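---------- Forwarded message ----------

FYI, see the Glycosyl transferase family 2 record below. Original note from H. follows.
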Amino acid sequence: MKKIHVGFLLSYDYEKLKMSIPLVYENSDRIFIAQDINNLTWSGNEFKVDDSFFQWLSELDTENKIEIYKDNFYVPELTAIQNDTRERHMLSLKMGIGNWLIQIDSDEYVLNFDDFVKDLRKYNHFLDNPKKTPIQISGFHIDIYKYLEDGILYVKDTCKVLLATNYPNYKLARQTRERVIYVDTYVLHESLARTEQELQIKLNNWGHNHELNSTFLEKWRRANSKNYKEIKDVFYLTGKQWSTLGFIKGNNIHDFTNRINELDITQLDKNFIFKKNIGQWFKYTFTKPKKQKLEFEEYFKD
């Protein structure tokens, strides 16, 4: 118990796991990869996984940490987001309550995962009675918006990403609506940074396809290194989470990572983190959160 257990979901963009898994391998106790037994997405579309991926996984797993967890994660009577939430819950139960349950999407790359684990360990007492004291641990997304021939567009506004919990009573995707503790961890998120064909596959299969903003794709197609300052409110749903874009030279995720200190984004200083955590402590200590239907926009709220 009280181990660092990391879960990933294997689906149509499984190749991105070759970037995300190695970043956490050394500092994880166990890694679980959830794969639908029929290779179906949350929308019921079939995907294929090349055998070479599992060969790569076997070569990576020198310490026998990785387990493939196969189950039926597609229920046709459920919506895509309901299947999303259901799979994450089933995966966390497999990972074992009493451990830190970290879920990372295939296109999320946790920077300095060793420091994130050190932060988690400060809150190990929340693992003694998880059901009584449920919490979530959040880092911050740096969203990569689009790869261009002459550089990379990114979102200047960082937003929370719910990485870990002690008790997986998920309400929507990774959101439990319990107290959030923020830590100064950045997570690179390739999000919309794909070819248009890859992006269409994502939009047709991910859990949030029913909430899409009808204007976002036109903005994404139009954005380039010359006009990006003029394009505002580029979030793929309603809301103002992604208000402005930034630009940096580079061709791929590795170039972006190497130049991360040059980005014009929210800086995660101690005062910023302290204020957010005080707000969460006050909210869940002295007020009782309203029990109401969770809308997708709430997933991103601070």
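H. also flagged this: Residues 157 and 179 are 22 Å apart (CA to CA).
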